[in-house]
Amino acid sequence: MGRTRSKKKTAAKVPAEAPALPAAPTVPALIEKAQSLIVQCDYELAQRFIARILEQQPSNAEAKEMLGVVQLETGDLDAAKATFTSLLPPHPDAPSPPPPSAHLYLAQLSEDDPGLALKHYQAAIEILTVQLKGKERAQDLPKDDEAELKSNIVRALIGQVEIWMDPSYPLCDDPAAPQTCDDLLQFALQTDPGNAEALQTLASVRMSQERPEEAKQCLEQAWSAWKDLDLDDPKLPPIPTRLALVKLFLELSLYTPALLVLHGVMASDDQDVEAWYLEGWCFFLMAEQAQEQGGTLDEMSWQELATDSRDCLGTCEVLHTNEGHPDTPLLEHAKELIAKLDALGIKPSPVAEEGEGEEWEDVEGSEDEDGDGDVEMA
């Protein structure tokens, strides 16, 4: 009996099976989480996940690229430059081929050395072109991948054009600059025919070459590619690109399309300082033109246009101050325009908010004067 009890006692002491511990997150899961946090601008937490990836895989190129992006976004430019450089040969851990994005980021970080920036853009273009040819041969791959490659090639080419056109660089005065810019943009439009950013940049080049009619044609073609898209359509150019288009419209005295583009920008972000500035400037220029034409423009008196300008510029000034916006010249020009309007006796509207809807009704109403819904560019 004693033995039986002993056996039972021993059996009773056998421990139950321990619950399984949760599996550690895989590297792909950590990468997905870090990417999500970067999109949410939570860079501090994203960096912690990236650190966990690099602890497991110190040479993981995707994690290094994300680390460089986090460093760039948080203002640690030297660290970002070192991180992106580690993705390129002759670094021993650099992948082959290196990611073209590393060259693109380094091009942007080489503002003090335009020659080096051009080399990085060119290296990215060469890698992307090889990848695009591979995609074109593989007919079963998603078209979105092909479109993204073409877009990246075009943006790299535009980056090169902007360096050649920048008056702060000696390349701007090079006799070869005009032809070089034309060649780069022709390559961009061969790569992605009808690309709005390439056409917009070509219009800017034509403006610098004092060929305004050709610039108008380029702008009309560029704008027509996306002007009817919904605000949440991924094909819609980013706000900075649309604001750059507005500036070109203003240079060519194309005020109605400028206001329509600004309307779309403000529908997406009504706190954009530059958009309010450009709208105020547009109305200021329209008021000047109205004075020259007998006092009215598009059935609005110059005083009404000037008041709209004063309201927009006042909003710009307030937002600029509240946000600590870094563009000081923009604020100085806005104040200069406000001073001119004050000297003319133009004061802000008593209730500016109530007039905004009517302002856009006038603009949108002018859209259909020719009956086809399109804004006349000429």
Automatic annotation (TrEMBL):
Residues 353-378 have a biased composition (Acidic residues). Residues 346-378 are annotated as: Disordered. It comes from the Eukaryota. This is TPR-like protein. It comes from Roridomyces roridus.
